[in-house]
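FAQ
Q: What does a multi-component entry look like?
A: The components come first, one per line:
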Amino acid sequence: MRRSLASRVLLLALAMAAPAAWAWAPTKPVEVIVHTGPGGGSDILARAVATMMEKEKLVPVRMQVVNRPGGNGAVAAAALYERKDDPNTIGFITSVWIAGPITTSEAKITVHDLKPIAQLMKEPAVIAVRADSPFKTLKDFIEAARAKPGQLKQSGGSVTSRDNIVRQQLQHATGTKWAYVSFPGGGERLAALLGGHVDIMVIEPQEAGEQVRAGKLRVLAQLTEARLPGYPDVPTLKEAGFDVTPTPQIRGVVAPPQQPAEATAYWIDRFEKLRHTASWKKYIADNQLEEAWVPGPEFAQAMKSIEAELREQFQQAGIKTVR
Amino acid sequence: MKPFVRSGDFWSGIALAALGAYIVSEARRWTYVSDEGPGAGFFPLWYGGFMVALSLVLVAQAVLRGAAPAEVRWSEVRRALTAWVAFVACVALMPWIGFMAAFALLAWFVVAVMARRPQRIAIPVAVGFALFFYALFDWGLDLPLPHSAWF
Amino acid sequence: MDVVGGLLQGFQVALGFNNLVMCVIGVVLGTVIGVLPGLGPPATIAMLLPLTMKLEPTGAMIMLAGIYYGAKYGGSTTSILLNVPGETSSVVTCIDGYQMARQGRAGPALGMAAIASFVAGTFGVVALMLVAPPLAQLSLAFSAPEYFGLMVLGLTMVVLLAGDSLVKALLAMLVGLWIAGMGSDLFSATSRFTFGRVELLGGIDFIIVAIGLFAVGEVLGNMEPLNPPSMIPVPKGLRNLMPTWQDMKDCRFAFVNGSVVGFLIGVLPGAGSTIASFMSYGIEKAVSKHPERFGKGAIEGVAAPEGSNNAETGGALVPLLTLGIPGSGTTAILLAALILWGFKPGPLFIQDSPQLFWGLVASMYIGNVLLLVLNLPLVAVFAQLLRIPAYAMNPLILGVSIVGVYTASGSMFQLGLLAFFGLLGYAMRKLEFPTAPMVLGLVLGDNMEKALRQSLMMSQGDPSILVRPIPAVLLSFAALLFLVPLFKKLNAFRVQVLERDS
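Then the predicted structure of the entire assembly, as tokens:
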């Protein structure tokens, strides 16, 4: 992982401070705000992180998950903002928090109003078709789409989701067009593909894994920088010949806007230490995620650039943007 | 001259027709059909339209049937609305005085004022219920209820 | 592995001491959660996940599954006694269950809910065991056009919930459709009817509408009279606390209806137990010889939905365990749990982990029996709740409503919505608008719109996709349903004319 000078200095400072007692450490239970209900992606991650922090004795108190679903993260963002200078509150974000406010004017608080702690990971995806489909490579699909514009179909999430963004980027790069059908739930998208109602989908590597093993799905390409260990034989987009860098789907941690600097430094350090633990490494491997550590102010920069990319993609796709 | 008093059906029909008209006007701001299928405005336009049509049928029925307006005991409606205002007050006060106090007040109001039971019954019931809910959910199940600054 | 061999192995696993204890814990916890409004299986299972890491996976899965289907047993309790749905799928039980309680028949209502849950729950397990893999494959043929047909069929059930005025029922349903459309549109990212409020971006949760319309609205109505009747008679004696043999006979079809409808709808990913309970209620009323009894305390109106929401759990496990596709919120968490424990849910799951699958199936048989044994005596306990005088009952219902909504959403805004829908429920009662169609419209409206738009996107705008075999059948049923009352009226008119002539 590349580290900038700023983060190196930060880490050096933290390392020097480490042997001494922390200037600040939580003394009451920590609240972790997530934007999904129980069982949703962020909720599961937050609970897993809480368990890992406890197991590795990184945090002396309990970490409690607080669900604030609604509004594509807007409700949770507002809840975090209201905590103002609370050192005992953090929040888990995903790209949805960045994408949401671009198209919804109701969202009053955006990620830029909150204090960044760190980006933890990227969620890769793969492009899959049914095992009995005529497309053996992504090129086959693109050629077929070129021959019959708008006839082939992809299932995916909402129009602002990564699934559609990838589709927009590919369509734009190759000059082809195919239809997109939104399904709110991952299970429904997969069922639509398996049942033959659509031809292709973008899917998490883990969901696809079992279907591939059972011989139901074929993976055409992976949306990653380097090949995932679970898919050694599948080309990345670049390797497959498409000069497209998909906008990353990230997960990170943020804090209320006026959280004291020492609390934020504490959290950055805790998450940094967590990354090196065995439980974390196992979690990343089991869930086929990509490590992508970006601490502090750089994280804010990274989010800004993601937002700019997304805005461009939305406008290209004809989705109305409000900011 | 017949007093121009209309039945509940008449007024609710008018209200629903207005709602339907509002829905249709909003729906027209959105895409009706795009090349990707029906847009955001498609469904609202249709059900809004049906709403207007059916509510006018309701109004027509009310007028044609010429039914006498239903026996509305306004004193009773006032009581129900008072209870509702108490409910709203309870919810509004909750962030300030916490669930226990707000709910105890509501419960007390319902028992003492609405049901006119004596204080020696009303107060224990109110306090008892408030404590019960708090103990079961907030303390026992770890599902937080709104707190004020103190409890 | 053949069924008998698998089942024998399963019972061996499930009857082991540890797993039996897990089963007991699961079903007891499930019942408690079901009884408490606002707390549901998804939240509880998610909270218990870290704990389960310390347990042996088969036992942990047995416990979590016990919570899942156990909650469906308990959900009817507050629905019947307080008109507050304890579980999202128990909304329909409020309609007839609460009326039965007001007539002093709370005991039989609660008892029948438990019995129907047992019958249908067991059916669900049997079906899961016997037809899971082939049915799962078949269910893949069900996609947006078929859902659309199903939703339209469901919405025409409004005809059956209508009561006296079809126009008012349709209007209530249309308002429900409007509320269902509130929020951020999935397909175009346009915000519809959010009035600028961020809390409305995700739409309004139907359970808040249901609790507001049913429970709070009812309480406001109770506030009207100065001297209300004080208590509902609680019959003494065990005989009066249980359904009679006549009741059981009346519910024969409801048992079948609930089991089959619930299971089949459970198999479809995306359709939920609430839809299943509405459907079986509608079907029950459609085939009844005395449909006018529904809504006034017909015991079949409790048996059918309670049965179907239990059979639905068996059905929902089909795509989860045979394809690795989660069909609902709870099964999604169960999927995450299986992955956390290192299993690989997918088409090869049963092959790879027969112990877990068959152990789970066997434990579900045991669990359903345990739940019946647990819940029947509880009927006597809960029925005592009705001894509370009316002046205390009303604040109790309000308290349960507030706590239920707040613990589920954590939001004062939602409490505000509760107050609004409470007033609306009262107004609807005074103006004689039926409230059930609004909830029906809300539950189904969103799904129906999505299904229609997905279908048309799939077919590039060609509407003939909607008359593929399955949707065509469903849509014809819907049309029939709609026309039946018309025929009845015409027939009645014809009979009248004939009688006058003779």
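Q: Is there any commentary attached?
A: Sometimes. For this entry: Residues 3-501 of chain C form one domain.
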